[in-house]
Amino acid sequence: MLSVPWREGPSRNAWMLFDLIVADRNELGLGSLEPDLDLARVAIAHSRDMRDAGFFGHVSPSHGGIEKRTAHLEGLVKVGEVIRGDLIIRLKSPGEAVTNMRVDMKAETSGKVNRLLVKESQRVKEGQLLLELDDREARLALENSEATRLETLSKYILEQQFAGSSQQGTDTDPQRQSLTQKYEEISELYQKGMISQEDFERRTRQLEIDIIKSGARKDEIMEVSQGLTQAEIQVKQARLTLEKSKVLAPFSGVITNIQVSPGQHVSGGSDLFTLVNIDKVQVHAKVLESEIGKMKEGREVDLKFSAYPDQVFKGRVHAISPVVDPADKTCNVIVEMVNVDQAVKPGMHAEVQIAAEIYTDRLLVPQDAILTRNQRKLVFVVEGDRAKWKYIAIGLENEEYAEVLPTDDPGGGVEPGNQVLIDGHFTIAHDARIRIVQ
């Protein structure tokens, strides 16, 4: 064993810990360990933590070295659990958050902005009034068209009253019934694809002429000739123009990018503001064509945004593009997520981790528990207040867990429910006393 000068303070514990490591390796047949500066530095740092926690017990110096009493030494450790479950291999890809519920609101008619009823970042509901243009001209146009319609309707009614009853056909006129039946037959043939559109239009045109001659559409023809039909169309157009002076929210969302002010004159097509809904957002990720066969709609996705480095958001594969981009040989995979508290904003960049392969019913051990000694994998299993050294064979792995394969090694292997050390176990020896902390 390495002989070192007896020192007081932190270095005393450091050298004691260094000698313990050397002795444990010799007892376990792991070969001699020559002292080096790096290991001494690790020992010093570790000994300070152990000293502060009060875990160094009584030691007594001896000529040429230090005599250790392991019964008084406890390791401060954290533990995880061996489980049986599904091992998910995730595919990583960069992505960007977008929303498909975004619309740039534009003026549909010209006029002065009478009232602007929203402000930047204001939440609005579907159908809510957002902006109102001066509608006085539109109202006058509607009143004028309604007056014209009333005048035309009055002339039409007078014409009807003075028209001779002998000129009116009857609903039971055999000729009219025959023409109507022919029209229905031609329509049915066209719907079944038995006659062409050209033939259908030619036949119906001739039938309309025959129907008009029979007097079946006399009332409709009189309305057109008197200008009543056109007057009614003008009323509808005036009402539509009046409705366009009020801008309503087409869906619930948040107002942004307001570009107008009260009193400002706008023309049809002018930008007013943007309405966006980010209660749900999509993340567009690019996946190599060689990996696209592993993508499945509905698969779970982990999303990590650079704006929230310590938070993982959950989503699912919503759609997979049927087209591969010839430029970079990638395929667009669309992930949909519920945007709690609207934390994710469109345009944010994300690391997308898509569940590509799922292996069910596997024995899994945390990756942080696995150590390598003599080129073999092992874990420390908690048994009472001791840590037992167990060799294991590793199969499939992801970032969190590794699959544990059956092993013929006597005393090796683990079982579901075993507690294994995941922190503070790098310098612990077999059968070391431990104290578990949260």
The gist of it:
It is built from seven helices and 24 strands.
What does this structure look like?
The chain is an alpha+beta fold. The protein folds into 5 domains: 10-73, no CATH class; 78-86 and 361-436, conserved putative lor/sdh protein from methanococcus maripaludis s2 fold (Beta Barrel); 90-100 and 278-359, Elongation Factor Tu (Ef-tu), domain 3; 112-134 and 245-273, OB fold (Dihydrolipoamide Acetyltransferase, E2P) (Beta Barrel); 138-237, no CATH class. It contains 7 helices and 24 strands. The strands form 5 sheets. It has a 6-stranded mixed β-sheet with strand order 18-19-20-24-3-23, with no helix packed on it. It starts with 9 loop residues before the first helix and ends with a strand.
Number of helices: 7
Strand content: 35-45%
The structural domain count equals: 5
For the report, how would you describe the main beta sheet?
6 strands, mixed
Percent helix: 25-40%
The mean pLDDT is 78
Rg: 42 Å
Write down how many β-strands occur, each being a DSSP E stretch of 2 or more residues. Answer: 24
Q: Tags for this entry?
A:
438 residues, six-stranded mixed β-sheet, 35% strand, Elongation Factor Tu (Ef-tu), domain 3, alpha+beta, six-stranded antiparallel beta barrel
Indicate the topology.
Elements: H1 10-27, H2 37-53, E1 60-62, E2 65-67, E3 75-81, E4 83-98, E5 102-106, E6 111-116, E7 123-124, E8 129-133, H3 136-162, H4 174-191, H5 197-214, H6 218-225, H7 228-243, E9 246-248, E10 253-256, E11 265-266, E12 271-276, E13 280-288, E14 300-305, E15 313-325, E16 330-338, E17 349-366, E18 371-373, E19 376-383, E20 386-391, E21 393-397, E22 401-405, E23 419-423, E24 432-436
Parallel strand pairs: 3-24
Antiparallel strand pairs: 1-2, 3-23, 4-13, 4-17, 5-12, 6-8, 6-11, 7-10, 8-9, 10-12, 13-16, 14-15, 14-17, 15-16, 17-22, 18-19, 19-20, 20-24, 21-22
